User: Fold this.
Amino acid sequence: MSSISAQGVVERASAELSKRINGLGLRSSKHHSSKGSVMERVTNVFCGGGNAAVTAPEKPSRLLPSRGHQTKNAPPPPVVQARKPKTLPVYLTINQLMMDETFLTKFFFYFTPCERCALALVCVKWRDVLYSLPHYWIGLVPVLQCRELRGFRPNERSRMYSQLLRRGFPSLCLMAATNEDALDLINSFPLLSTQIITLKLRCSSIGDQGLESLMDHFQKLKELELAGCNEITEQGLWQCLNSRINSLTLTDCINVADEAVGAVAQLLPELKQFHLQAYHVTDQALGYFSPKQGTHLVTLRLHSCWEITNHGVVNIVHSLPNLTELSLSGCSKITDDGVELIAENLQKLKTLDLSWCPRITDAALEYIACDLNLLEALTLDRCVHVTDIGIGYISTMLSLKSLYLRWCSQIRDFGLQHLCGMRNLHILSLAGCPLLTSNGLSSLIQLRHMKELELTNCPGASRELFDYLREHLPCCLVIE
Assistant:
């Protein structure tokens, strides 16, 4: 059989296609210079002659007008301008990044106010960034040691006061201050007068004159604390206290007695918080409060007021019906009858502190459990007559979140079984309870929502117990 040449195959194909086309001619595309027929294109494909790759003609679109028949007066197509990419700073080294103000502003948010004090000492750039934003220092109170400040030069003290102003501290504490120190602060930097809202004087020999000057200078002062200021007299408080004060703390001031409380009751009609620690205050002082304080006063803390009895409690419940926090810590003459008055008349209480009240018994806890339905925190430290029966009363309080039973020497494992049913209890302190055993303490793993558990000085707590509690209460802070 003779071989068939490629040219013969092409000729046969051309003849066959010619018959099928039946004389139909095809126009060549305007966009191509070659005017060959379809047969010539097939020949080129098979034989490799001419251009092997032939570009297919463009398919006209029905949506767009042809180039030769463009509609008259048609608007030109909109010009889309490409957006210019934002130029971002390029940092070559870590040192350049650590000097960029934008980065540092966000970087310093990851530190506490105390840690920022150390960061401000790194360099001038870091100090300027930290000092420029007052919210970095929220919750931090600068303490001025006046004994050390007396050795500074006037320009050094002025520079320190200017740094306080730059950081925007709303609080200021003076330690060991005298009248001269108070006048120096006023004269050296008067611009602090509109910034300070909270003033604390601790362990100071400042007298009535110095206190009066400070009260006149700080025009927006609302919170005042006097601790260990033995030179301030009751007459001085009558002269100095301003009606804008809404929070007052008087602790360990030897001259504070009933008349000082009378000045507070008369001169501070918008008082919201009052913290008093004075050994010479009696029931008569609490009689100075009137219903005008009852509208605003919500927090009353009486610490170690040894002379206050149940009669003083009567004055409290009649004059201050809106209290939400009451502390009678160290008021050793308060008995169960006084607690009954509190439970019946102060039903808005959320915090109650009866620590170091040795006359409190289980009966008082029964009154609390029956009437104080909003109570969230209860402190019974050193209430040595509280037993498992009283703990059983407390365990029925669904709103209670914090319970402190430090050195309650009669609580046993049976009382802990009652506590295990308090599903809303988040903080529990059993420090110094000598009768608790490891078996009883291990049952506390039933309190799955516990956040803090204090077991210091508990003879029944062992290393194995602490490991067991931490294993079953992973979200709880166990204090050894």
Q: What stands out?
A: The longest strand covers residues 171-175. The chain has a mean pLDDT of 85. The first helix runs from residue 6 to 21.
